[in-house]
Amino acid sequence: MDQTPMHEASLTKNPADPRAILSDPLLNKGTAFTQAERDRLGLHGLLPSHVSTISGQIDRRIAVLRAFSTPFEKYAFLRDLQDTNETLFYALLAQHRAELLPLVYTPTVGEACVRFSEIYRRPRGLFLSYPLKGRLRQILADLPFEDVEVICVTDGERILGLGDQGAGGMGIPIGKLSLYTDCAGIDPARTLPILLDTGTDNQARLENPLYVGWRNRRVRGADYDAFIEEFVEAVQERWPGALLQWEDFAGPNAVALLSRYRDRLPSFNDDIQGTAATALAAILSAERLAGINLSQHKILLFGAGAAGCGIASLLVGELEARGLSHDAARGCIYGVDRDGLIIEGVNVAIPGQALIARPEAEAAEWLASGKAPGLIETIERAQPAVLIGTSGQFGAFDEPVVRAMAQHHERPIILPLSNPGTRSEATAGDVQAWSDGRAIIGTGSPSEGGDGAVTQVNNVYIFPGIGLGALVSGATRITEAMFAEAAKALASLRSEGGSDALFPPSEQLADVANTVALSVCKVAERDLGATPPADGWENAIARRRWVPAYRDDLLSVE
Ligand SMILES: NC(=O)c1ccc[n+]([C@@H]2O[C@H](COP(=O)([O-])OP(=O)(O)OC[C@H]3O[C@@H](n4cnc5c(N)ncnc54)[C@H](O)[C@@H]3O)[C@@H](O)[C@H]2O)c1
Ligand SMILES: O=C(O)C[C@H](O)C(=O)O
Ligand SMILES: [Mg+2]
Fold it and tell me: Per UniProt, where does a divalent metal cation bind (predicted)?
């Protein structure tokens, strides 16, 4: 006997089931289906009577969203909208970007990753779990994701500063790709979030009966590497030329995967390279605001992991470009990690730290106490003009630290970049208060407790434009020069209006993405031989933009 439930049977037996269009988030218009569409597509009865416009829908959705009391509830509401009506989701986001960005992205996306299993409802993107090893090629070949242009992938091990979230990490690629569409106008049908589920070492997740991921400790070493290799080969075969963004991998894997794959496909690590360009742009803006010359000052990086070492590397390149020798450029940068000031031969923990390790001879006096100096001691000795936090250590920039920074500089530049706010080295309000309002401040997450002059220094100012520029120019590689130029392009957007803002406000992220994309296209033309279209890169960038408007060709869909 046929055991198929009746509603499923009728769905499969009738491919023209009118409900199919309502459950396709890229085609669904909800109450905005016109009477003619309802007639033609057989939607009468399936929708309430009122025929809305997209602007009416936006007004209704934003009113409903504002009635929720917590950011997490609002996040779940927005994700649900994204999974049911993607056009409306992006139209809403474009119209209310400043309000919604902190919900679909940092900081709320962090809580959403921690609580991912509680709100998991519908499939989005790909979960490729380790037990599928050996089958990835076939799985990708069989799935109906055609024309994918941008992939964001994580294994969930370093989700913001919140550590290992296993499969819950999927929230991050979903959020990043939402911004590829919102800011850079990449067609959502051409984006693909991927979670490589190689297990989790988060005991709470492993023990939680609700956890939706693969309940296994993390696969490591050669087995892990082979799985990633299989994944990359499968991606290259299925979507040749697609851009692959590595996101929120734990430090050592982040560095290793970038160096293994950066020359094999258009690919970059957002936490290393996107963050570096963002931080450099913030420093270039702040330098002009403070009226200083960076090459005559010291910069202190607190937390020299993937992000910190990426920033160091791009900074050294910038200082060299200004005429400093390699050693002089390195000498401008100090790194303090969990074992104090990073000193050659003493406490270099990862290869990237070697670039900024202080020579042992120079540090001999400092080591007299038998221990590498900590943050405050390093500030007192080096008197840096810039302090950057990528440590994930909440409150590490305390009052003595900020006061020490403010003692030697009229306008100290203080950038607690760790996310989310619960992992930030300092709040903007505290930095303002402890520096008597003199500090130039940028925080990774939207600032809480600061006034209007605090900039969100987050790689969302860079990665959408990098991706857009790479796609428009057809770049086969994402190069360091692209990040250096992107940083300069972003810094050039600082308004000279007298405010302390380092970047334009988030409302302008679409313009920012265009500017960054243009700088990438120019580097692709100069260094990779990309050919500009006859009417120039700007027009090519503008032409590419997907806009969140309902399709008006549904009446002709067969
Ligand atoms: N604002 C942004 O755009 C942005 C971008 C990337 C990363 N981040 C944030 O930066 C943080 C770090 O990211 P990552 O990818 O570099 O991670 P990571 O794990 O590679 O690096 C963190 C570093 O901090 C060090 N650290 C830990 N405890 C410390 C302590 N008590 N004192 C000094 N150093 C300590 C670790 O040893 C490690 O070197 C995260 O919170 C992340 O959210 C922000
Ligand atoms: O995701 C963000 O908000 C920025 C960055 O990529 C991070 O990992 O913190
Ligand atoms: Mg990240």
Answer: 247-248, 271
